[in-house]
């Protein structure tokens, strides 16, 4: 039974770390796009509340995959980049040394 508890604890820690990284990458993508949380809310006509986006970025709330896809589209960044799976592929950044590093 102790092993199962340890496995769940490790899984929980890994999930938290992943959500934190996704949040950091999401914030970096927003900032790279030049948006404040207020601008995101206005530009999406309230589809994304600034407070909700901020809570996703701080890993206080899990972001549903459909919302993550929409935000990535809005920020013009590949979802794999936000998930930490790929390089930045926007045309104006693809050939720079820091491609793939959202927190530049």
Radius of gyration: 15 Å
Low-confidence stretches: 88-101
Overall geometric form: elongated
Looking at the overall shape, the CATH architecture is Orthogonal Bundle
Report the CATH superfamily: lambda repressor-like DNA-binding domains
| Mean pLDDT level | 84
Oligomer classification? single chain
Q: DSSP strand (E) fraction?
A: under 5%
- The top-level CATH class is Mainly Alpha
Total strand segments: 0
Helix/strand order: HHHHH
The CATH topology is 434 Repressor (Amino-terminal Domain)
What does the model show?
- The chain is mostly helical.
- It has one domain: 434 Repressor (Amino-terminal Domain), CATH 1.10.260.
- Helices cover 60% and strands 0% of the residues.
- It is built from five helices and no strands.
- It has helices spanning 2-33, 37-43, 50-57, 65-75, 79-82.
- Helix 1 crosses helix 3 and helix 2 crosses helix 3.
- The N and C termini lie far apart (45 Å).
- 17% of the residues are buried.
- The model is unreliable at 88-101 (pLDDT under 50).
